[in-house]
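Bug #77: duplicate submission created two jobs. Keeping one. Sequence:
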Amino acid sequence: MISQWIQVDFWKNRLYINREIKNYGGANIMFGKKKQAINSLISTNTYIEGKVTSEGNIRIDGRIHGNVSVNGDIFVGQTGRVEGDIDAINLYIDGSIEGNVKATGYLRLSSGARIFGDIEVLSFIADEGAVFQGKCVMFENEKVKELGNN
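Kept job's structure:
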Protein backbone atom coordinates (compact mmCIF):
# COMPACT_ATOMS: atom_id res chain seq x y z
CA MET A 1 0.00 0.00 0.00
CA ILE A 2 1.26 3.48 -0.89
CA SER A 3 0.51 6.18 1.67
CA GLN A 4 1.13 9.89 1.58
CA TRP A 5 0.00 12.34 4.28
CA ILE A 6 -0.88 15.98 3.77
CA GLN A 7 -3.30 17.66 6.23
CA VAL A 8 -6.01 20.21 5.42
CA ASP A 9 -6.32 22.51 8.40
CA PHE A 10 -7.75 25.95 7.67
CA TRP A 11 -7.12 27.20 11.20
CA LYS A 12 -3.36 26.87 10.79
CA ASN A 13 -3.34 27.19 6.99
CA ARG A 14 -1.74 23.78 6.53
CA LEU A 15 -2.78 21.14 4.04
CA TYR A 16 -2.94 17.39 4.91
CA ILE A 17 -4.37 14.80 2.52
CA ASN A 18 -4.20 11.12 3.35
CA ARG A 19 -3.75 9.24 0.09
CA GLU A 20 -4.28 5.50 0.39
CA ILE A 21 -4.35 4.11 -3.12
CA LYS A 22 -5.18 0.56 -1.98
CA ASN A 23 -8.31 1.54 -0.06
CA TYR A 24 -9.68 4.56 -1.88
CA GLY A 25 -8.02 5.00 -5.25
CA GLY A 26 -7.97 8.66 -4.38
CA ALA A 27 -7.40 10.91 -1.42
CA ASN A 28 -9.02 11.84 1.86
CA ILE A 29 -9.33 15.43 2.92
CA MET A 30 -9.66 16.17 6.60
CA PHE A 31 -11.61 19.24 7.72
CA GLY A 32 -11.39 19.27 11.47
CA LYS A 33 -12.37 15.74 12.47
CA LYS A 34 -14.26 14.90 9.26
CA LYS A 35 -12.61 12.82 6.54
CA GLN A 36 -13.91 13.14 3.02
CA ALA A 37 -12.79 11.03 0.09
CA ILE A 38 -11.71 12.88 -3.04
CA ASN A 39 -13.16 11.12 -6.07
CA SER A 40 -11.68 13.38 -8.76
CA LEU A 41 -8.54 15.51 -8.91
CA ILE A 42 -7.79 18.26 -11.39
CA SER A 43 -4.06 18.76 -10.95
CA THR A 44 -1.96 21.90 -11.12
CA ASN A 45 -0.92 21.59 -14.78
CA THR A 46 -4.43 20.76 -16.02
CA TYR A 47 -6.65 23.18 -17.95
CA ILE A 48 -10.27 22.24 -18.69
CA GLU A 49 -12.57 24.23 -20.95
CA GLY A 50 -16.26 23.35 -20.73
CA LYS A 51 -18.75 22.10 -18.17
CA VAL A 52 -17.51 19.80 -15.39
CA THR A 53 -19.96 17.53 -13.53
CA SER A 54 -19.29 14.92 -10.85
CA GLU A 55 -21.29 12.68 -8.54
CA GLY A 56 -18.51 12.68 -5.93
CA ASN A 57 -16.12 15.07 -4.22
CA ILE A 58 -13.61 16.93 -6.37
CA ARG A 59 -10.36 18.77 -5.73
CA ILE A 60 -9.28 21.51 -8.15
CA ASP A 61 -5.63 22.53 -8.23
CA GLY A 62 -5.65 23.35 -11.95
CA ARG A 63 -7.75 25.75 -14.02
CA ILE A 64 -11.34 25.34 -15.25
CA HIS A 65 -12.98 27.69 -17.73
CA GLY A 66 -16.65 26.67 -17.49
CA ASN A 67 -19.32 25.78 -14.97
CA VAL A 68 -18.74 23.13 -12.28
CA SER A 69 -21.65 21.11 -10.86
CA VAL A 70 -20.92 18.52 -8.18
CA ASN A 71 -23.24 16.30 -6.14
CA GLY A 72 -20.69 16.40 -3.34
CA ASP A 73 -18.00 18.73 -2.02
CA ILE A 74 -15.45 20.84 -3.87
CA PHE A 75 -12.02 21.82 -2.60
CA VAL A 76 -10.25 24.51 -4.63
CA GLY A 77 -6.56 24.45 -3.72
CA GLN A 78 -4.21 27.41 -3.60
CA THR A 79 -3.29 27.04 -7.29
CA GLY A 80 -6.88 26.27 -8.33
CA ARG A 81 -8.84 28.70 -10.48
CA VAL A 82 -12.41 28.46 -11.75
CA GLU A 83 -13.84 30.89 -14.30
CA GLY A 84 -17.52 29.96 -14.23
CA ASP A 85 -20.37 29.16 -11.88
CA ILE A 86 -20.03 26.51 -9.16
CA ASP A 87 -22.81 24.39 -7.63
CA ALA A 88 -22.00 21.92 -4.82
CA ILE A 89 -22.97 20.79 -1.33
CA ASN A 90 -19.94 22.19 0.54
CA LEU A 91 -17.11 24.31 -0.84
CA TYR A 92 -13.66 24.84 0.64
CA ILE A 93 -11.81 27.58 -1.23
CA ASP A 94 -8.13 28.50 -1.04
CA GLY A 95 -7.82 29.51 -4.72
CA SER A 96 -9.67 31.86 -7.06
CA ILE A 97 -13.24 31.83 -8.42
CA GLU A 98 -14.67 34.24 -10.97
CA GLY A 99 -18.36 33.37 -11.13
CA ASN A 100 -21.40 32.71 -8.99
CA VAL A 101 -21.31 30.08 -6.24
CA LYS A 102 -24.16 28.01 -4.80
CA ALA A 103 -23.55 25.76 -1.80
CA THR A 104 -26.50 23.96 -0.19
CA GLY A 105 -24.24 23.31 2.80
CA TYR A 106 -21.45 25.69 3.64
CA LEU A 107 -18.80 27.78 1.96
CA ARG A 108 -15.41 28.07 3.67
CA LEU A 109 -12.88 30.66 2.48
CA SER A 110 -9.32 30.29 3.72
CA SER A 111 -6.95 33.25 3.89
CA GLY A 112 -5.80 32.77 0.27
CA ALA A 113 -9.31 32.55 -1.21
CA ARG A 114 -10.61 34.99 -3.83
CA ILE A 115 -14.25 35.01 -5.00
CA PHE A 116 -15.53 37.54 -7.51
CA GLY A 117 -19.25 36.81 -7.94
CA ASP A 118 -22.47 36.29 -6.02
CA ILE A 119 -22.90 33.46 -3.51
CA GLU A 120 -25.91 31.51 -2.25
CA VAL A 121 -25.11 29.47 0.86
CA LEU A 122 -26.55 27.91 3.99
CA SER A 123 -23.45 28.83 6.02
CA PHE A 124 -20.52 31.13 5.20
CA ILE A 125 -17.13 31.14 6.92
CA ALA A 126 -14.24 33.39 5.87
CA ASP A 127 -10.76 33.47 7.37
CA GLU A 128 -8.89 36.73 7.73
CA GLY A 129 -7.33 37.70 4.40
CA ALA A 130 -9.97 36.05 2.20
CA VAL A 131 -11.47 38.25 -0.52
CA PHE A 132 -15.15 38.17 -1.51
CA GLN A 133 -16.67 40.71 -3.92
CA GLY A 134 -20.34 40.18 -4.70
CA LYS A 135 -23.63 39.74 -2.92
CA CYS A 136 -24.51 36.98 -0.51
CA VAL A 137 -27.86 35.22 -0.10
CA MET A 138 -28.20 32.90 2.90
CA PHE A 139 -30.53 29.91 2.72
CA GLU A 140 -32.79 29.42 5.70
CA ASN A 141 -32.32 26.00 7.27
CA GLU A 142 -35.10 24.01 8.99
CA LYS A 143 -33.94 24.85 12.56
CA VAL A 144 -34.07 28.57 11.84
CA LYS A 145 -37.56 28.20 10.31
CA GLU A 146 -38.77 26.32 13.42
CA LEU A 147 -37.42 29.05 15.74
CA GLY A 148 -39.11 31.73 13.62
CA ASN A 149 -42.49 29.98 13.88
CA ASN A 150 -42.49 29.92 17.73
